[in-house]
# Entry
Amino acid sequence: MSENPRQELQELVAGLESLLKFQRRLGWVGTPRPEKSTSPPSKDAKTTRPTLAEIREEMGECQRCKLGKGRTNLVFGEGSPQARLMFIGEAPGADEDLQGRPFVGEAGQLLNNMLHKLGLRREDVYITNIVKSRPPRNRDPEPDEVEACLPFLFKQIDSIRPLVIVTLGRIATQNLLDTKEPITKLRGTWQKFHGIRVMPTFHPSYL
Ligand code: URA
# Structure
């Protein structure tokens, strides 16, 4: 991978493009993903695989950490519950906090461009963050805040079961993978999270 962040983004897009091309040929991407089961979910499956709506409901007007007090809107995430590709950022910024939607500010423009280049719409993928409430002055989320929020991200991942997760930036990468390895080392290299392929990259706002 390149040392130049812009080139890095182009390379990431190219890499994802070829992966998606392959998956499209298999009929995995571009057409709605088949429902997880054709028969009604068993009681067991329901308890182990909550829907996104159920996870959102469980979060409620979350006050599990100190970020709850300062936010305008909780930013849960959005996109397809059957997404093959999931993007995980760090935390909502000012625009996201106001709108209650992830990546709608400047960094979101870059993400939208990336998706456009991949021939995807936001509705085809799933986009969320490590923490769901805006940290004051956009500071990094603190360990207790991440700890309070991560279980909900894990549930979202388990509900969607994407084929590939792209982590956007250091905070998303290190917290998802539970590592202190620098992003400069991890970005552009395939990692795994519970059997799901993870591609760490720089955060769009850095790029
Ligand atoms: N940056 C992030 O990490 N997430 C957002 O939702 C917006 C900006």
In short: The CA atoms of residues 188 and 200 lie 6 Å apart. The beta strands are 78-79, 85-89, 126-129, 164-168, 191-193, 196-201. Residues 5-25 form the longest helix (21 residues). The mean pLDDT is 88.
